[in-house]
Every structure is written in C-alpha cells, then in structure tokens.
Design a protein that fits this description.
- By secondary structure, the chain is α/β, with parallel strands linked by helices.
- The protein has one domain (10-166, 195-269): Rossmann fold (3-Layer(aba) Sandwich).
- It contains 11 helices and 7 strands.
- It starts with 17 loop residues before the first helix and ends with a strand.
C-alpha cells in the first residue's frame, strides 16, 4: 500500500465546472440537446448492463449531470447519486426534479467523496461507476471500491465503464497516428492522445485502465465477474487499407486488447 506521504492529491473539484460537464464530459452533446432525456451511445450501453428493475435501490457514484439518475427513476427504481463536484450536484438536482412527480422511483443527490459514501452497509442492489475510475488515483480507487463493496447488497451488482483503454493510448494510438500521418491526416492526431478530442483530460485523467489492470484491481478489492473491451461503432469505407486493418485489429486477440478503446465490467461481491 502506498505510504500516506506518497499519495498524490485528488484532482481538484474546481476542474469540474459547468463548462466541463457541458463541453467535455462523456455525453455532453446529448445532454445539451435534451437536458438528460437521452443518453449517449456509451452511457446507454453501460446503463443497459445494470438491468435496473422497479423497486431496486441504485447508487450512481460520480453522477455528473444526473441523466443516469433520471433514467433509473423512470424505470421505477430509487436513484441515489453522489458527486465530488458541487456543480455536478446542482446539475443533477435540476435534471431529476421533473422526474419526482411522474415516476415511482425516489431520487436523491449528495455532494460526497466516493472514498466515504454516506450510506448504510448493504443498501444497494446496483452500484454504477461510469467514467469515474480514470479520475481516481490508485489509492483513491482502492478506498472507493472498499466503500462500494460495503454499501452493496450481498447479491448486488457493480457496473463500471472507463475510457480510454490505456493500452490503446500507450501502444495502439502511436500506430494509428503514424498511419494517419502517412495519409496526410496527422494534423488531426496530436502526439498526446489525451489531447485528441478533449484536452482537459490531460489534467483530470490520472488512472486510466486496461482490461487486465481493472480485472486485477477488482479482484484485489473482493469482486468477481466479467471485465471486457468494446469500441464505438466504426464507419467502414473511408479507405480500403484502413478498413481492412481496423476490422482485423478490433476483432482478433491479442490485437483487440490494444485497439479496443472502452473498458466495461459487471461484477459481484466475491464471497
């Protein structure tokens, strides 16, 4: 275990302002267009894995703008959210307010740290952590997972989505960038992959994962289940060479371990 004096300070909550949630955080386009009524492809895929049913109690750790809470409550489950950033709590309360009078699920949002969840033990059927793992230093993630394990029911499920796959950034992205440069498209692919679409990630992504590192971390925290990789749908047809390479590396191990960009997990308490 890291010594206390060696632990890196948590990412400042001041970096998670409204501009971050409306211009950088996953699903911002859909959120800005619908104020939480529609989920992005990535969030919808992760949320579907939870298989939320009426009467469940669901905790969204790092609830961000609150759209997952809204969709949870609309399914008839009780939706509880916590977030480290005050702006996120404010946005979430606005998003879930219209739900309270039309859906059977209750909703509540708290400003809290994932390392110290303000809930009793064994309270939740589902715990969700979407696009949060990469924002927590290893020591923070360790403590957060211990808390999540504590508040889950014995037969509960823990669903995770994190991106990018660190093996993509470290090993596959330089290859992709080189190929794009040969095709005259290198200007769209900065040297640092964290600056590819959202430059703020360079400051807030402190613990990106591979499929294997997340598997090890979850096992060490007392969880068992499935961890796997996926990627967003690709538009084939731009170039025969690129098409062929992409179809191959996204589907065949071990290449897909490097080129798939998103990490998912559905786990339970290992008893």
């Amino acid at each position: 275990m890291e010594k206390l004096e060696q632990r890196q300070a948590p990412v400042s909550p001041d970096l998670y302002d409204e501009a971050y949630f409306r211009t950088a955080c996953e699903g911002f386009d859909e959120f800005n267009e619908t104020e939480g009524q529609h989920l992005s492809r990535r969030l919808a895929s992760a949320f579907a894995l939870a298989a939320v049913k009426p009467g469940m109690k669901v905790l969204d750790v790092g609830c961000g703008r609150g759209e997952i809470l809204r969709h949870t409550a609309q399914l008839g489950a009780d939706a509880y959210g916590i977030d480290y950033a005050a702006v996120a709590v404010h946005l979430s309360k606005q998003v879930i307010e219209p739900v309270n009078n039309v859906a059977p699920g209750r909703t509540a949002v708290y400003q809290a740290d994932a390392k110290h969840l303000p809930f009793p033990s064994g309270a939740f059927d589902r715990v969700l952590m979407f696009d949060v793992v990469e924002h927590l230093h290893p020591w923070e993630l360790e403590q957060s997972l211990a808390e999540i394990r504590r508040v889950m029911k014995p037969d509960g499920r823990f669903i995770i989505h994190t991106a990018p796959n660190i093996w993509y950034d470290r090993y596959a992205y330089p290859v992709v960038r080189s190929l794009r440069s040969l095709m005259g498209q290198g200007g769209n692919y900065p040297k640092n992959p964290r600056n590819f679409l959202v430059s703020v990630n360079e400051h807030v992504h402190v613990n990106e994962q591979s499929m294997w590192s997340l598997s090890r971390t979850l096992r060490a925290a007392g969880f068992r289940g499935k961890v796997w990789l996926e990627s967003p749908p690709q538009s084939w047809g731009e170039n025969p060479l690129i098409d062929g390479l992409r179809k191959f590396v996204f589907r065949v191990p071990p290449f897909r371990w490097f080129f798939e960009r998103e990490v998912f997990a559905v786990v339970a308490i290992d008893r």
